[in-house]
Amino acid sequence: MGKLYEEITAELAAWLKAQQVFFVGTAPLSANGLVNCSPKGMDTFNILGPRQVAYLDLTGSGVETIAHLRENGRIVIMFCAFSGPPKIVRLHGTGDVITPESPEWESLRQGFPEYPGARAVIRVQVSRISDSCGYAVPRMEYLEERDVLIRSTEAKGVEGLKKYQREKNARSLDGLPALDAD
Length: 182
What we know:
- This protein has 182 residues and is of the alpha+beta class.
- It has helices spanning 10-18, 64-72, 105-109, 148-168, and strands spanning 3-5, 22-26, 36-40, 45-49, 52-58, 74-80, 88-98, 118-132.
């Protein structure tokens, strides 16, 4: 039986931080728009308060979450237990996008490791916190983080990364505006 939480408790926070992967879901307002679900890993999730979380958004091939949040703000973050007792936790809310040009960037960015290619902090005001059984989620063994994204970003260099963001991160798949890459 699922449970609703009033806030992220210390116990729930510890469980969330112990998970190796989480998934971010967003969608545009258009009925014809593409729903997005993105897996996230590494040490990119942070709890800012009892009803506020954030994650460090690293440069990748897509930019759907940023575009969707800028359009309508809706977001859900889902965690699954792949080891230990079965459990799924969903954090529904509204998110905003803090980029390096934002006044809040430095203070929010400090809560995360120094990863190259950090393009935004996604901050979420959580309106609903719930868990469910997760009985059908398979048990899986965590081996290690992949370093391909880091190596790829470092190989591009500063100017190459800016060019990549201009070409790949300016608009979503549906054509919504996303990043203004300089």
